[in-house]
From TrEMBL, chain A:
All residue ranges annotated as the BHLH domain in the record: 191-241
GO terms of biological process kind: regulation of DNA-templated transcription
Keyword Transcription carried by entry: yes
GO molecular function ontology, one term from the record: protein dimerization activity
Protein name: Basic helix-loop-helix (BHLH) DNA-binding superfamily protein
CDD domains, per the entry: bHLH_AtBPE_like
Gene3D superfamilies hit by this protein: Helix-loop-helix DNA-binding domain (4.10.280.10)
Lineage of the species this protein comes from: Eukaryota, Viridiplantae, Streptophyta, Embryophyta, Tracheophyta
Keywords: DNA-binding, Nucleus, Transcription, Transcription regulation
Subcellular localization: Nucleus
The UniProt record lists the keyword DNA-binding: yes
Automatic annotation (TrEMBL), chain B:
Record-linked Pfam families: IBH1_N (PF26576)
Ranges for domain IBH1-like N-terminal: 5-64
InterPro entries: IBH1-like, IBH1_N
Keyword line: Transcription, Transcription regulation
Descriptive protein name: IBH1-like N-terminal domain-containing protein
């Protein structure tokens, strides 16, 4: 069919050739679109607006196009060209940030059997470079909770450098983990050197570092100062994402009569994601 | 190494499986709402299975979805695998209440706990934030894949319509 040929031509568009091919393609499309409306007055969405077909094509290459757009768009900006036919909000899917977050979000517990124990965290200090890892303080706080006698010894442990678990072996649940340097926790001048306040300071630093990462992940969050507002943004983001999932599943359900319809579509989209 | 793409791929594979399983064990015909619930359920199970690790949110999501599908043997199969992992790994969660939270932050953390599945069980703010971060990544993957699938569906739907009309 003409349409499929148009699609193939579009998918072959790369770089400098884009101008010529898109020109031919849009001519073909205009021809097709003008002949379509009388046939599909029943209610095909593409007949209502001329654009959505080309934009649906954009969406076929969604991950590539949006990631390239996100690089040119500052964070917190909603890229205007990813206009979805149903007007859904699209976040700048900065693949670099999401990679960092994906790496960060791996919680590897394979060192010991203790789930709450040594969890490997990674905090990005600069984009794409070494990831600093904070010591598994949980192990020490666990021991603190269990028997109070050991609280002082664990505090002394914190005064020294915190060792890092360099888990180079990959586990099934951990997607990736790099070798990480030490994170020093030092008492600055004029600050209390209590065991407890040291522990608290370390925890606060960890929380702040993670909040910074969350700020980067949630769009539009880096300009805000203060924990409460950042949490607001995060809550907003999670709610929006959940609502989007709800709406998308409603749309998928409305389109087809059966629920395993989209196996081919999923496989097709899997190809495009690569 | 593009890890977000890997996340999406894992989600896609699991989603295909769960959709297939769910579809073979549900009686047709279904109305739109039931279909939507089935799709939502399958995709939630898929992201939780794709995470398949030791996060609280994935396990909570799996057990929450387990209550929705009652006597379906397929769903039980999915849940059984996840529950075994839970038994091996779930010890006591970290409990450390030695921090003072301001009022606004406390209210918001309560709200966040209600949003993230399994968040109510987490006392430590630090751990809650880590869970939220993980959950956000997988939610994003879910949304991205579902949007792409819906777009592809739109296009192929038009194609088949045109073929039928012509």
């Amino acid at each position: 069919m003409d349409l499929t040929q148009g699609f193939r031509a579009r998918s072959g568009v790369v770089g400098p050739v884009a101008g010529l091919e898109s020109l031919n393609f849009s001519d073909e499309f205009r021809h097709l679109v003008t002949t379509m409306p009388p046939e599909t007055t029943g209610g095909s969405f593409t007949a209502l607006l001329e654009m959505p077909v080309t934009q649906a094509m954009e969406l076929l290459h969604f991950p590539d196009s949006s990631s390239s757009q996100a690089r040119t768009v500052t964070s917190g900006d909603i890229s205007p060209t990813t206009l979805h036919p149903f007007g859904a909000l699209t976040f700048p899917s900065n693949s670099l940030l999401l990679d960092r977050a994906a790496r960060f979000s791996v919680i590897a517990t394979e060192q010991n059997g203790n789930f709450s124990g040594e969890t490997a965290n990674s905090l990005p200090s600069n984009p794409g470079a070494n990831l600093d890892r904070v010591k598994a303080e949980p192990a020490e706080t666990d021991s603190m909770v269990e028997n109070q006698n050991q609280s002082y010894s664990s505090g002394k442990r914190k005064e020294r450098e915190k060792k890092v678990k360099s888990s180079t072996k990959k586990n099934k649940s951990s997607v990736e983990s790099d070798k990480l340097p030490y994170v020093h926790v030092r008492a600055r001048r004029g600050q209390a050197t209590d065991n407890h306040s040291l522990a608290e300071r370390a925890r606060r630093e960890k929380i702040n570092a993670r909040m910074k990462l969350l700020q980067e992940l949630v769009p539009g969050c880096d300009k805000i100062q203060g924990t409460a507002l950042v949490l607001d943004e995060i809550i907003n983001h999670v709610q929006t994402l959940q609502r989007q999932v709800e709406m998308l599943s409603m749309r998928l359900a409305a389109v087809n009569p059966r629920i395993d319809f989209n196996l081919d579509s999923i496989l097709a989209s899997e190809v495009s994601i690569n | 190494m593009n890890t977000y793409n890997m996340v999406k791929q894992r989600f896609i594979k699991k989603w295909i499986n769960t959709l297939h399983m769910l579809d073979s064990s549900i009686e047709h015909p279904l109305n739109v709402t039931e279909r939507k619930n089935a799709i939502r359920l399958s995709s939630d199970l898929a992201i939780a299975a794709a995470r398949s690790g030791s996060t609280v949110w994935s396990r909570a999501l799996i057990s929450r979805s387990g209550n929705k599908t009652t006597n379906k043997p397929m769903a039980r199969r999915i849940l059984k695998k996840a529950r075994n992992r839970m038994k091996n790994r779930c010890r006591t969660l970290r409990r450390n209440g030695n921090f003072t939270a301001k009022v606004g932050v406390r209210k918001r953390t309560e709200l966040l706990k209600s949003l993230v599945p399994g968040g109510e069980l987490i006392d430590d703010k630090d751990y809650l934030i880590r869970e939220t971060l993980d959950y956000i990544v997988y939610l994003r993957a879910q949304v991205d894949v579902m949007r792409t699938v819906a777009a592809v569906d739109l296009v192929t739907g038009n194609l088949t319509n045109d073929r039928r009309n012509k």
